[in-house]
Each structure stands twice: as structure tokens, then as C-alpha cells.
Amino acid sequence: MARPRQVLSLLARSFGLDLGAALLCVLVFWLPLVDRPGWSRSVHAWAIVLLIVGMLLRSRWSVVAFCLVTGVTLAGAVSGMTHDPFVAAAWTLFPVAVSWGSPRLVPATSVTIGLAIVLVAVGGPAGAEETVRYVMVSLLVLAGTWALGSTMRRQRRQAEHALRAEKEHAVTAERLRVAREVHDIVSHSLGTISVVSGVARQVGDDAGRMREKLAQIETTSREALDELRAALVAVRDPGEGVARGPQPGIDDLRGLVERVEHAGIAVNLTVSGCDRVPPGPGLAVYRIAQEGLTNVTRYAPGTSCQVAVVGGDTDVRVEIVDTGPANGLVSRSAATGSGFGLVGLRERVRLMGGALTAGRRAEGGFALRAVVPLGRHEVSGG
Which of 72, 140, 239, 243 is most buried, judging by how many CB atoms fall within 10 Å of its CB? Predict the structure, then answer.
């Protein structure tokens, strides 16, 4: 019901403005009625009626209103019934200029209207000085109205283009966000499953260890599906009634480390000062640790790894450092930082106002370090 009420209110306001402008033009430019008997007085009265009707049509049929009011004004000026310098016509011209106005049409329009005004002025009982004044004022009124309407039309189109570009940017940013989430989830889970499967293949006839590795694969797969479902639900229509699961955070780092340890990586996790980390930065910290440990599992099997998460007043610092592959023969292609995972992490951290660095260490191994800002409004909320 709110929408129809707003439309009715807008229509009533427009009608009131048009009626007020029409009455003002009649009072200033068309009264009193010509002091002539018979049909001249009736024609004058009907001209006023047509003028008012034309101005009331302005909000709905602007072109028809402009033609009608302009014709009445021309006839009234020729017959001496009005000295209106096309003010009423300019009132109806404005919405026409807003809808179809263009600066390129100003010269042609001005010349056409100017010729018509000159004909009216020459035809009317006026001296040369008054004729020039009438023509100049009329041209200024109509040309100024057209220029103002054209400017408003251009500003509206620019605002529409800016709004459309903003929406497209928001859609692209959301797609990139979802792509980063899906990559982080799938990459880590499949990497862990691949390593655990390789270990399971080598256990031989040890049924107990085989069941243990299969259970790890099952757990990792189920958790990956839950995280993937939560990430995809985030972009669905909330009206569908699908409940969105909680996003992982710093409290989930221990479970992440345990899964990596099952893949044969010795991980030392230390977390301090992270009691007040909001969900957004907490998710970013989790994804950074997830990507770092995934790369360690892939490119440095058998290594030892240090994961340190230190919270401060304004940011959280994350560091994942390993000593390199145990056999020293595995290539570390991620060292260049060109993988999609590290690219996604840099985008995520940069959008939050932080910084991320990744590369080989001089003493061997690989280091991934990031600074994730907390955000003033989030920290103050406790």
C-alpha cells in the first residue's frame, strides 16, 4: 500500500504545481479580459481555459501540453490578448527537454521559435523597441528552459550509468568472493584427501590403518561439503529459507591443524590475543592458514611447520613457516606466489586493508605472512 500512496502523493503534488503555475500566468499575463464586446471577450476567455488545460497536461502529456500552450500563446500575442513572453510555454517545455533534450537541438530550436516570436511581434501592435525587448526576453526564457532541461537529462543519465556500473561492480566482487571461498575449500580438502589417499595406498595389508585413513578421507570430505554448502548459500535468495551455517574462524584452527597432521605434517600451532576477533577477520585468518597449510601439504611433504596467530588492538598477524620438504627433492612452484590460492588471499587481505607476503626463506622452506585489520567499528563492539 505504501507504493500507491507515494504515487498518488507525487501526482497530487505535480497537479498542484501545474495548477498554481497556470493561475499565476493567467493572473500576470492574461488578465484583465480584453475590453471588447461580443465574440472577442469570449475568445479571450476560451484562450485562458485552453491555456490552463494545456498546463495541467504537462506532467502526463508534455509534448501535447507544449504544443497547445505555445499555440494559445502565439494566438494571444498576435491578437493582443496577452503579453506573455512564452513563460507558460517554457513551463511545459521543461519536461520535454528533460525527456528528449539535447544540446545539439538548441540552435535549431532557438531559430525556429525565434522566427515564430518575430512574426508574432511584427504582427502585434507594438513599437520597434518593445518588439525587440519581447523577442529577446522570449528567446531567453525558452532557450534557458531547454538548456536547463537538457542539463538535468544529462545528469540523470550519468547517475543511471554510475548506478549500473556500481551494481555490475558489486556483482563482480561477489562472484570473486565466492570463487575465492570455493577455491580455498576445494583446494585444501582435495589436497588433504590426495595426500591421505597416497598414504593409505602404502599401508599394505594393515586393515586398521586403512580404516583410519578412510575415516580421515570421509571426515575431510564431509567438512568440505558443509563449508562449500555454506559458501554457496551465502549468494542464494534468503527468501528460499535455507539456513546459512556458521563460517569457520580462529577457533576452528585446531581442527584444521589436526587434519593436516593426519597427512604427515608436524604442525606447531600458537594462538594468542584473539579473544575479540570479529567473524570477518576471523574467517580471513582461517582461510590464510588453510591455504598455507594446503601448500605445505602439497609441496613440502614430511616437513615441520609453525603456525602463529597473534591478535592485537587493530589487527591480527598470521605466519605459516615450514622448513621445506623432508627429501629436499619436491618442487615448490608456489614459491613464486602465482597460484590462484595466493592470488585470492592477496585480494581478500587487500580488500580488508591488510597486507600479505609469501616466498622462500633464505634458510630453507617457505613463509607466508599476513596482517589482517580488525576494523574500528568491529573492535569497539567487543
Answer: 72
